[in-house]
Design goal:
- There is one protein chain.
- By secondary structure, the protein is an alpha+beta fold.
- Helix content is about 35%, strand content about 25%.
- An 8-stranded mixed β-sheet has the order 8-12-13-20-19-18-17-16, with helices on both faces. A 5-stranded mixed β-barrel has the order 1-2-3-5-4.
- A hairpin with a 4-residue loop joins strand 2 and strand 3.
Length: about 575
Amino acid sequence: MQVLSEQEIQRRQEKEELEQMGINPYPSKTFEVTAFSKEIKENFDKNPDQYKEVTLAGRMMSRRIMGSASFAEIQDSQGRIQVYVARDEVSPEEDKTLYNTVFKKILSIGDFIGVKGHVFKTKVGEISVHVTELVVLSKSLKPLPLPKTDAEGKVHDAFTDPEQRYRQRYVDLVVNPQVKKTFVQRTQLVNSMRNFLADKGYLEVETPILQPLYGGAAARPFKTHHNTLDMTLYLRIANELYLKRLIVGGFDGVFEFSKDFRNEGMSRFHNPEFTQVELYVAYKDYNWMMDTVEAMIEKVAMDLHGTTKVQVGMNEINFQRPWKRFTMFEAIEHFTGVDISEMDEDALRATAKDLKVDVDDSMGKGKLIDEIFGEHCEPKLIQPTFITDYPVEMSPLAKKHNTKEGLVERFEAICNGKEICNAFSELNDPIDQRARFEEQLELGKRGDDEAMVLDEDFLRALEYGMPPTAGLGVGIDRLSMIMTNSNSIQDVLFFPQMKPEKKVSVELSEDAKGVMESLKKAGKTDLNSFKESTGLSNKKWDKAIKELTKNGLAKVQKTDDSLTVEFVG
């Protein structure tokens, strides 16, 4: 049951007034736009003759009525511009309804209008559009939550509540237009990386989102069911195993910007649906990939900011090459003073507890080391840093280290206290890979719900032979947070996942409920006759009908000779 405010009820009435006047509040005909606010403001002084006739469209965001002439502001996709609307210009004939009634009384802040006219400068020097034609393009039925500035310059009622901003991003973008910059920069970031990879000759590809087996990462999946095939499918947690199949098939370099899904916790750094780019290049190793990551992210910073230095909160982060490098064990010893390189599982568990790290019995060596690193090292790595040479237990898909027993050729890039990428010299020995998968199955039996599953088809692909390969995954959301100085992952996602919105319930009196049920059956009817049929006293009737109209459940209208009432919930 929709609850309407007084303004919402009024706007619905305004919509009906437009329709009664023969004006379609939602016309379908194309409205040709020839200019935009920002473009006009930037270029008018240089070439005023170019703007002798312009057509703009956008939301009306303010209006100052001054008798037979008025000023208003239109907000289009590029910004805002003032428009000057004179009664005799937009209504040159004897009928002045378009100005006197439509513009002055029926149109509201937030409505879309189209204007045609010429650009000029006001006496105070503001570039404006002198309107000669005005059309209604869309009537808004909800008022925008616009901030107000008082005489002292203080802003009130700003649309700043994070939950409302994320839940109603469409409103956030309108009333907080600076938010658009974050999403424009995110797109520029993706384009920068895409161009970097394409220029190297690597092929952009697509792999399945629905997979019969999930793999390529340690994470819990979302599960669904395909009715026709009568089989369980999973939303991918990574696209690694499919991209490596393409390397087996003969491509030397492939990459994919992918939506991945992990059924795990939510925070300002985690969203269950996220974006990453994965890259796989044949005949390369993780050392080569580290150099590639440095070059690519340095380029992103330059493309977005014109410098390798990026302000993130209180920190200035410099992406200029080369980045600092630690092995995993070096980093843990550096930040904790404890050398864990020779410890077995029991010793690691005891050390973790000594270091106040929360662990449980389901965790094997790899998970224990990961928890120690995550608690004591990762948050302290602010400048971009490579962490290399992980224990084999932590990396089921990475190749064993050439010279260091028990380690694999893997790195992660950490920046601003969080991982932004993960990479390996990819494991291409099918016998070793099968053994690693089987170890993961044992961890799963112990209760590790993020352990990998065994993918027989992927193993079959490896048995046909995969060349030495370097692989990489970069988290686009995390990198976007850093590059746009955003505090939360929700700030770089147009529509982040949210808890269900609480429904507003309408509490009605028994009399109002009775009137509403009768109205539902009666349809649109004469108000006085209907009032008599309810049997309510004047006082009870007035109270009941006021409840219904206030909550947008009933509408009273005046016709030529009577009043009508109808249910509109």
